[in-house]
Amino acid sequence: MHALIDFDWASYAFGNATDDEYKPLAWPFVKSRIDGTINKIVEATGADTFQLYLTSADKSNFRFETATIVPYKGTRPTEKPFYYDRIRDYLVKRGAIVIYDREADDQVCIEQRIDMAGATEDEYGTVICHVDKDIDICPGWHYNWMKPDDGVYWITEIEGLRKFYKQCLTGDSVDNILGLFGVGKKSKLVSALDDMDTEEEMFDHVLEQYTKRLGSYAGQFLLENGRLLWMQRSADDIWELPK
Q: Which candidate, 110, 131, 116, places its Cα nearest to that of 6?
């Protein structure tokens, strides 16, 4: 098994690590935590090999230009953690690949998809390792190291699509992507997708809810949100309205 590790998380999780007096931890301790996390991921997934991925620190990510309703990631603080640059430099020295034009999220999905389309669970040779629920849109093996008790889990194509269309309804507050006002994760509009087994049903349901709220602008708003939320399967994969 080959572990595809989206490790953008590390620069933030360990970047502001402090002691009891709120002073930054010594770098050797921070580096040790990073190494320990990587080792635990590899051990938990039973991976023989692994690859780390980071999103470039610039704004080459296509989503920044795609977002016109509200700025993509516009609510995030601009100040970077104390060890942000040092952690990224260290990870690059450890072989991390820096991804431009898209995000590390997309890249791990692209790598998982290569030569694996239509493969069964037993035939998959990669596992996506992450802490981001958005990546569960991508079919295949997954591991969330913040939820180790869940172990390695399998996402089918239809489960991935269901998660995607649910996000089209709820939006994503972390990335500043607006869904439909008042529609949360526990909304009946969201849970209704659990009983749908085709993308056509899911799309029709989501478009209907957008149309009720936005009228003739429904398609425009859904297209933008879908493109922001969709995890790419290939380098030129841009989400389009199914019909």
A: 131
